[in-house]
Amino acid sequence: MTPPCFVVPDDLVPSGGNLYNRRIGDGLGVREIAVPGTWPRPGDAAKEGLAQALAGLPDGAAVLIDGLVACGVPDVIVPAARRLRIAVLVHLPLADETAAPGMPGAADLDALERETLRAVSMVVTTSDWAARRLAYAGQVHVVRPGTDRAPLTPGTDGVTRLLCVASVTPRKGQDLLVKALATVADLRWTCDCVGPLDRDPAYAERIRGMIAEHGLGDRLRLLGPQTGAALAAGYAAADLVVLPSRAETFGMVVTEALARGIPVLASAVGGVPEALGVLPGILVPPDDASALAAGLRRWLTEPDLRDELRNSAWRRRDELNPWDESVRAMGVVMKQMIEEPC
Whole domain around residue 295: which residue ranges? Predict the structure, then answer.
């Protein structure tokens, strides 16, 4: 039996999906096949490259494919699924990639994804919420992201240092964050936004313009992507992590914050409540800058609330799933796929 392989986007930009892929792939020791392309809408050359990579695998081989690669190209995946044991890892349903006002294409992406997922042997996703969302696909397994144990952060002053870790894209909702922070400009705070700025350059430029328009340039910084020691230092200084997303399958930033005992203010979308658990944060309705501003004002002005949330975050960190458990769970799924008759 040929060992399983893992097909992933050829993308080194820091993101939750890329981190998950790396930790799972390294933990399982599977061969990685990185395919270039503008996924989930690749050009012809990228589609041909994916088709050739799959054609090079022997009949019956087990292959895990990142959903960003697989779900938009049923014309490649459906034929391959007739001779390969394919599991698709859905980090985020494709329709949610366009979960922001003015972004077209959700309907056709959803149709492509449904065609793909109905054809493959298994579907894996990262939260119970997503498993319910994808129930039409048949066998849907949940393998939640893991979290590395981290020391409790000292923070800055326990109140005023805010941190948002997310790619600067409409789905992540930095426009909502700027509007909300402008509403609480009478209070003392600073906010660092950490994440790639080149996923949607026009949107990133719009956010810069909003920051300037509201006179927040000395308080709200777009720092670009950070990893390793720089990102750890950002978390260490943070008093509150803010995630204003319009769509999230799980929200790894939430558990990364909780692993350090940092409370979270987040939109109640997708699997975020599942990641947050009970009490260590504030959940607000999605796509609602006023509700986000109200949550920020509560955090900044209510010391009893801050103490309660910090204590809850410290307790929640002991309940988080370690990465070795995620690797074990994915290994069980892959073993099941391998052992099932073709």
Answer: 161-317
User: Taking a C-beta distance cutoff of 8 angstroms, is the pair 266, 283 a contact?
Assistant: yes
Rounded to whole angstroms, the Cα distance separating 227 from 86 reads: 32
Residues shown for the chain: 342
pLDDT at residue 205, rounded to an integer? 98
Are 177 and 138 members of one domain? no
| Integer Cα distance of 101 and 119 in angstroms | 31
Name the token pair of 162.
């805010």
Task: Single out the residue of 135, 120, 88, 67 nearest to residue 342, CA to CA.
Answer: 120
Q: For residue 168, what are its two tokens?
A: 């600067």
Structure tokens, 291: 């509700």
- Prior bond to 40 cis, omega within 30? yes
3-state helix, strand, coil in the chain (%, to 5): 45, 15, 40
**Tell me: the pLDDT tens digits for 131-155?**
999 999 988 999 999 999 899 999 9
Angstrom distance (rounded) from CA 206 to CA 308: 36
* Residue 50 one-letter amino acid: L
Distance CA 4, CA 29 (A): 9
Q: List helix spans (H) across the chain.
A: 16-28, 44-55, 67-70, 74-81, 94-97, 106-119, 128-133, 174-183, 201-213, 228-237, 252-258, 272-276, 289-301, 303-317, 323-339
Instruction: Please indicate, yes or no, if residue 224 is contained in any of the structural domains.
Output: yes
pLDDT at 96: 85
- Do the domain assignments include residue 327? yes
**Is the pTM for the entire model greater than 0.90?**
yes
Strand partners, 190: 161
Tokens describing residue 256: 């990364």
CATH of the domain at 121: 3.40.50.2000
pLDDT above 70 coverage of the chain, percent? 97
What whole-number distance in Å separates Cα of residue 337 and Cα of residue 316? 33
Pair 215, 135 in one domain: no
Q: Is residue 151 in some structural domain?
A: no
Q: What is the pLDDT, as a whole number, of residue 258?
A: 96
Q: Are residues 282 and 331 in the same domain?
A: no
